[in-house]
Give the backbone structure.
Amino acid sequence: MIPPRFYFANNFAANGLAAVEEKGKWGFINARGEVVIPLRFQYASNFSANGLAAVRDNWKYGYINEKGEMVIKPKFEESGPFINGLARIKEKERYGFINEKGEIVIEPKLYWPGDFSDNGLAIYHDVENWKWGFINTQGEIVIEPRFAHVNDFATNGLALAQEKEYGEVGYINSQGEWAIPPRFIAGSDFADNGLAFVEESEFINAKGETVVSVESEDSVEDCSIEVLKNAQRKIIWPHPKEIPVLCKNLYESDLEEDLENVVWPHREAESGDAEAQKELGWMHNRGIGAEEDKVKATEWFRKAAEQGDKDGQFELGKSYFFARGVTQNDAEAEQWFKKSAEQGHIWAQDAVRQMKEVKLLKESANKGDINAHYELARIYDVGWWEMKNEEIAKQWYKLAAELGHAEAQVTVGKMYDQRDCSSKEKTEAMKWYKLAAAQGNVLAQRILGIKYQCGCIYGIAVDYVEAEKWYRKAAEQGDDEAKLYLGEMYEKGQGVKVNQTEAMKWYKLAAEQGNWRAQAALEAMIKRSEEKRQ
């Protein structure tokens, strides 16, 4: 038994140590509650199986060993646990992977990659065509990005995938082939028992055979609660317009009509049933089976919370934190998060810790810390513990940008780009991109190159000379996409004289970094060259 002392504590890792936080600092204790690694970090995650733990110091992430020694210096914007020998890190808004020595084995050029599964493959995102594929531990593309949605590979070697947005889903193998062809409206990952849940209440095996079919005789009211639980907790993925229903009678007609005709648990909620009150709060919060009404949602969450329901307490904390149906109140939010956390609610425990971190960041931001402004923006943008607030995130991004934070300036530029097509908005976007590019931000330099090359579709005049200038600046910093585009300009003679040798040089440099489009362009040039010789 370890007496209550710490503001936040993780579970104990396999090595017998747990990350804890007290007075805004993190360290590690053993099973007897003794501090074995002093509380000196801004944040600490639990140790991975290899004996390394990610910690944050001076707003950068590094790794310590079990003696508390810094073995990988803090230099990353983000860092994750080691899984199968590799850890995901972030530098300059892109992700890569390091090994246990801290050596970069996959350059940080990826957008939102997953962790490596047991088969050595990880999800990666191609932002150009907005598709998902898989890379291996060398960063090589092994499954081309052709999926609208895809999940990590399960232990049985299959991954849930969807080729077309809102299309049917199926399961692929590690070669990217359909092991179970797409024929389901929705599905889940395969569990350790070898089964996956798919449409119309069926459980299938790895061959796609139905092994269990749920023919529930439960009341419609009971089914509605299951609907809400699954929709709220996102058990079924990925189709956003379908709600997983565990009773086939709700699938016999149009889903929306079924939901409208469901007898929801109002009676039980009004009778004081905390579970029903919580469900009713979720319904009003999401607008599922009841009108979307944040005030009513908060009222029901409060009724459940006051009865000691930990989910209700967590949701009430969120209502106060984000002013959903009530006036914003951090103190009230923290109070309810703590009550929920004390009952073991994992997200609430995380919320308590994150609120403390937000408070510290705000204190630093008020002292003029530029990085603190940006970190706050990221918190509200990314949305910890299922929380995000776009408007607050924009405010902090703008403040950080005005103080000269390059990454924030790029984000603000994107914000103006996404508003509308007016010349005023486009001019403002270009202003922020140029400020970031002048500081050497690679992404801003590449964006400027794209805009000047494509011209009118971005609301500006085509200027190949400017495009070539910015592509070159980004390429000279190692950006593979900029190298690809620079190769295209030399091949087409845009802003420069046609020069096949230079084009092939830049294609080759990008291809050597694993850029599959550069590889294809290089192969096409070589093929045309060989055909001319014949």
Summary: DSSP finds 17 helices and 22 strands in the chain.
